[in-house]
Known about the structure:
The protein is 2% helix and 56% strand. By secondary structure, the protein is an all-beta fold.
Amino acid sequence: MKFFSPVLTSAALVIAAVCGSPMMRQEEESSSCTLSGTYTSGTDVSSCSTVTIKSLKVPAGVTLDLTDVKSGASIVFSGTTAFGEKKWSGPLVLLTGTDLTVSGTGTLDGQSAWYWKQGTSITRPVFFRMSKVISSTVSAFTIKNSPYRMFSILSSSISSSDTASGLTVKNNKIVDSVNGIRIKTIIDDYGEVTDVTYTDNTLSNVENAIVIHGDYSKSEGGYTGSATSKVTITDITIDGLTGSADQVYDILVDSDVVSGWTFSGIDVSGDTGRCSGEPSGVPC
């Protein structure tokens, strides 16, 4: 997947239409569906083995809901998907499922310029949230102009027992962003982040290249400065990270809950930054 932040058939049946523009067309029952025009909240894609998203406008305050797709489905972004602007928490896209393939040559545009004009203290939507996504691949399409956090990966709705594992982030380009690679865990919570691999990613004009924090407060919406999270962060691999950043490292974790980090092939220009609690072998 390419990440850019201001710098993831003939119609037999018309399922929905907005302002005269067809939004979803289904070629064949339990087969291929196409989304185009203006998206309608609640559109049912549960019978579609392939969902092709062409040029699509998602209204302000509406989530492009991909949570009810079939196991093994393919989701293809082939045009430009643009999201209306609104002060809200989002997400703009929500994905859930098993054995999914999400790909394409299309672009998702979060229209970030509008948000930055409103100031820095407004509520901004998360762009692309993945919740309970299992054994799936997300690749190739472009995300640009993110109003806030580009990707949010959730594993369960119970924060005290979250597990995120088996994630590979590969061959991405992150441009004009606050953070490049980031893992953050919530203070005083328990859970596990394990077997996460970042391979051959590139940064350009990023503030913080590698961020791993165990002091995030949901209530405060930021870091506390005290790494009291009990979420274990183990078997983290960074193999190949190049480009430029203001600082390479911003790490604050409890040394008792981290192990098995392997960092190699890091060639990022910028200040070294700061580390606290990291396992041995991290070149900070």
